[in-house]
What we know:
Elements: H1 5-28, H2 33-59, H3 70-83
Protein name: Spore coat protein
Keywords: Capsid protein, Virion
Organism: Anaeromassilibacillus senegalensis
Amino acid sequence: xxxxxxxxxxxxxxxxxxxxxxxxxYANECATPDIRDEFMNILNEEHQIQADVxxxxxxxxxxxxxxxxxxxxxxxxQKFQNANPQS
Length: 87
């Protein structure tokens, strides 16, 4: 049974999230700057692929992203401002 287009996009998005998480770990654990830089370049490319897939899914209505309520935004800002005593 063939996967429908939406299922393929869901699978790709999930895979990209896993890939970026993995490359992030690799970049954090590099012993040399040259290798770290290369992993950071790869990580950036993988994040771009993930963003492109996410944007295409939003455009097709497969990943709705409702606007946040202003009250919720203010609550989140206060929560994190209070957690950071340097601000």
